[in-house]
What does this fold into?
Amino acid sequence: MWPIFSGGSSRDLVNCMAYHEDTGLIIVGGNTTSPDFAPAANDHGFLYALDIDGNFQWGRFFYNVSYAVSDISGCKISSDGSSLSVLGMGKSVPIIMEMEILEGTSKAFYSLEYYLTSDDVSPDYATAGAIYYEVNDYRNGLPYYYVGFSMDNSVELVRMRAPLDDSSNPTIDWAYEFY
It folds into this structure.
């Protein structure tokens, strides 16, 4: 066992951790407001990877990007072990990212904004870490993300079909709402 410190002088929260057996990487994600850990003193989602000996391999802050991510609340290795699925908040809506494991680079990014959002209707979202990416569903062989988050006073469970290629779009296959 080895001690390791990450974070800074303000609030730092670890919300998820995933272990990738093939590479031996331990991937950690969360939220920080520490200006001595993140690029600035406001909410930043982060991910970093350590090897099994505790050596830093890569790290990412989602700051100063076109779609700033303020929190990482869930992460899980995909069903085939080829990528890391990440659930978080970006611009106050739930987001899904698919990350390459060895380098920590983004392979895909999706936002789950409510389709009836307008100036008068703006849901209050929260994420709590429920994400899973099934690369090859046993029923039909298609790739699906399964995510859970809260919207206003309900819990949302969503199955989103991942794009099959670069020219297709993700599709919400089903969504259930529980009060």
Observations:
- Residues 135 and 153 are 31 Å apart (CA to CA).
- The first strand starts at residue 12 and ends at 20.
- The chain has a mean pLDDT of 88.
